[in-house]
Amino acid sequence: MTQTILHKADTRGYANHGWLQSYHSFSFADYYNPKRMGFGALRVINDDTIAPGMGFGTHPHANMEIITIPLKGDLEHRDSMGNGTIIKSGDIQVMSAGTGIQHSEYNPNRDEQTRLLQIWALPNKQWVTTRYEQITLKPEDSHNKLTQILSPNSSDAGTWIHQDAWFYMGNFETPYTMEYILKKSGNGVYIFIISGDIEVEGISLHPSDGIGIWDTEKFAIEIPFSAKILIMEVPMLT
Q: Which of 175, 51, 32, 30 is nearest to 116 (CA)?
């Protein structure tokens, strides 16, 4: 029987650091909720807004797959692997922290906020070689359809991570109904609503809501008007 869990936008953890407004779908930093320790292999979904000229100083990570998706504005990235770049809305950044990396992230603009999603997924291998990848999506690829942005396979469309996970984005500007079929038995799906409204399993979802679905092979998504969504299929770890 299909199982679901609903996380409404206004029930997320929240931190106001002045230069950073951060909403946490799962327990993170000073926000602790024993019922929200993640969803399967997903450990963190942070919805961050960074003030102009501000950002995260150099800090370490290890044994985590880190996916950054800018939604508005730019993010300047530098890391201990020698990468230095600016990622923008439409880009997807992936880091395999593996044996250990250090990086910094700043909003390089002086007159515009940056909003981004930072997602952490537990890897299926420990202490892998660190890696960095950045891709740019074409707007037409996700216009009124889902586009794969991440998978376990380096030869697939989009980028990849060390986990049996598949991520998709879609930007729907007209009413739409689709059926999502899970890629791997035993996986679950977490959907984050970037904008607009959708309905899943009879549950209405609005901007910044999240829903987890598992114990199913497929389910329907209805978009009554328009919506931008992120679908994350991951193993349901025990």
A: 51
Pairing of strands 187-196, 176-181: unpaired
CA distances (Å), 151 to each of 96, 106, 165, 167, in order? 13, 27, 5, 7
For residue 141, give the 3-state DSSP assignment: helix
Edge-to-edge strand ranges of the sheet holding 218-223: 176-181, 218-223, 198-200, 203-205
**Number of CB atoms found within 10 A of residue 80's CB:** 13
Residues 105-114 have pLDDT tens digits of 999 999 999 9
CATH number of the domain bearing residue 49: 2.60.120.10
Q: How many domains does the chain have?
A: 1
* Residue owning tokens 């807004």: 49
Residue 205, domain extent? 3-235
Q: What is the CB-side half-sphere exposure of residue 148 using CA atoms within 13 A?
A: 17
Per-chain mean pLDDT for the chain: 97
Match 């000073």 to its residue by tokens: 30
User: For the residues 54-63, what does the mean pLDDT come to?
Assistant: 97
HEC profile of 42-86: EEEEEEEEECCCCEEEEEEECCCEEEEEEEECEEEEEECCCCEEE
> Which pTM does this prediction carry?
0.97
**How many H-runs (helices) and E-runs (strands) does the chain carry?**
0, 22
Largest CA distance in the chain: 51
In this prediction, residue 139 carries a pLDDT of 86
